Amino acid sequence: MITLFENIEENDIKKMLKCFDARKILYKKERTILTNMSNTTIFGVILSGTANIIRVDYNGVRNILERLTEGDIFGGPLYESVNNELSIIATSDTEVLLFDYHHIVNRCRKNCEYHSRLIENMLQILARKVQANNEKLLIISKKTIREKLLEYFQTKARNNGSKSFKMDFTLTDLADYLSIDRSAMMREIKNLKEDGFIEIINKRIYLHM
How many Å apart are CA 171 and CA 87, to the nearest integer? Predict the structure, then answer.
């Protein structure tokens, strides 16, 4: 069950989506789901698949702000304070549900009883988003590439509840997420393996710290 719809009956979900004029759309890998995101009222939820929120600055430097997976929400109103143009790019075949944000913040004329539950679920998701963003701020605040990588690896393993985790980024995307040079990052990953800090088997990273 998608978190946004938890504790809402299936029939009520169908009524709500009809009331919201919601649209289910399947995007193929590498297709753009949304562009110029901070200037739109479109709101969405990932039903399946994965996507990245991308920012390209005035120098053409690409940065991944956030990784979206099943159940994650996105939309212009969540990023109004970001001046740079943001886009959402599917990193696998991804199905999304899109509707206008005003349907959430404004009660419909039918005063649907499940509307309050939807808002409560949304606030829970936003709380997790804040936590994830705080974790990223801690990671990119580290001074060296090694420190950033180790903080990222430890955060992922901790959230996975073990000493290992499966990489959900390509190496290029990981460099863009951490705002570091890919070649320099690759050298540091090699050093971390040689120094015995990490082991990589079939895209799974094991921590030995």
Answer: 20
